[in-house]
Design brief:
Blueprint lengths: L2 H15 L5 H10 L7 H12 L13 H15 L16 H13 L18 H7 L9 H7 L19 E2 L4 E2 L5 H11 L7 H32 L7
Antiparallel strand pairs: 1-2
Helix pairs in contact: 1-2, 1-3, 3-4
The chain binds zinc ion (ZN).
Length: 238
């Protein structure tokens, strides 16, 4: 860190120990901490130093540059507790070392969260467990299967194409609808009753047929009306 950086860090220290600002101290700390950047971890190191009780009770705490180095190192090491290098490519990646260092630094500085749990050992379960696991997740016939299908969310939505388990979406905006589409809800009811989903094409065809029928009926009614109107004697003729 530069003398100006050291000055900022010392001003932070002063909040704990009331030390007086001094240009000489800024210079000295800047030299002692030339490899340490002035980052949040440096400030946190000061806080950690002053929140740790002194070795001898009653002794006045007075931070030194090496304390910043030690505590900052500890803070970064703790973030690396369960660090696992995530390889992006195969084993003969010529840049793996720089990748490894970049990831190490990202996790140590807190820019990237490290794994919160120790990594599990790889390997399959015991054969006896594997045999029992083979039955897990298979379709259960009868009543239980019916329960799984209950509710619109158990269905794929034929309107917005939402898969089972996901909510309906509004148009192409991607926003979630509060209610499932009517057709999806209807399919859920049909599924609960053991019926196949609505045949949308057939329903549309039936609707068109009904419209055609009504058009034809009103056309006939109009024709009928005209025929009777023509047959009726006019006032002049009487
Ligand atoms: Zn939908």
């Amino acid at each position: 860190m530069t003398p100006a950086d050291a000055g900022k860090l010392l001003a932070h220290c002063a909040m704990y120990d009331n030390r007086q600002p001094s240009r000489a101290a800024n210079m000295a700390w800047s030299v002692a901490l030339k490899d340490v950047p002035l980052d949040q971890d440096a400030f946190d190191a000061v806080a950690r130093f002053y929140s740790t009780p002194p070795a001898r009770p009653g002794e006045r705490l007075w931070i030194q540059p090496h304390d910043v180095v030690t505590h900052r190192k500890d803070i970064r090491r703790e973030r690396l507790a369960n660090f696992v290098f995530e390889s992006t490519s195969d084993d003969d990646d010529p840049f793996w070392l720089s990748r490894y260092r970049a990831q190490l630094d990202a996790v140590a500085s807190g820019r990237m969260p490290g794994p919160s749990q120790a990594p599990a050992l790889e390997g399959g379960p015991h054969p006896s467990i594997a045999d029992e696991l083979a039955g897990v997740g298979r379709e259960v016939p009868g009543e239980v299967a019916k329960v799984r299908r209950a509710g619109p969310l158990g269905q794929h939505c034929p309107v917005c194409d939402a898969p089972a388990g996901r909510p309906c979406r509004i148009g192409t905006s991607g926003r979630e609808r509060r209610r499932a589409h009517d057709l999806r809800a209807e399919n859920a009811k049909r599924a609960a009753a053991g019926l196949p989903p609505v045949d949308v094409a057939a329903r549309e065809a039936a609707k068109q047929e009904e419209i055609e029928k009504r058009r034809e009926a009103s056309r006939l009614a109009l024709e009928n009306y005209r025929a009777r109107a023509e047959a009726m004697p006019t006032e002049d003729a009487s």
